[in-house]
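--- STAGE predict ---
source: upstream dedup step, 1 unique chain passed
mode: sequence only
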Amino acid sequence: MTDRADEETPRFVTFQSWRIRVAIAVVFFALIMVASALVPEGPYLLTTGPVFFIGFTAYSFALHRSVVIRLEDDAVDIRLGLHKARIPYEDITEAAVGPRTEWWRIGRRRLDDRAAGYLTGGPSVRISTGSTSVVVSAAKSYRVAGAIRRKCDHLAEERGVARSRPAAEAAEPAPQQGRTTR
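--- STAGE serialize ---
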């Protein structure tokens, strides 16, 4: 095994869409306008409005701002705000480009096909582990899926275990008989 002490662990970060941030700002602006119309005078607007605005904005950014995928030595680490997942490479059966998720579906979700989702909207990667799947937002989904597959294959080679690949990837053209190549 090569020494990885001076190499950096591969890390992929996908940030929340600007549309979501604008939508949150518009909703808060509307709430502050409604609050100012309902409470035209007094200290309530001066205290509750800014506190509500700052609190929800901090909550939104802290919990759903970005998805971080780290390819550690023995597992894929996924983090979305306070939600974390760790998937060991030996449990991964497939890593492929997943569905493009809607921009308003953010956070930790259970998808229609019972897969766990760590979503910020946009392109995603589906990591299958036998009976379960995890869908993770990734701006560069092809790169992330390829990096996970390479890491799984590399660890399988180190352990001397042949990984089963999908038939489309494993199929190689048969050599033509009677012809030689120079």
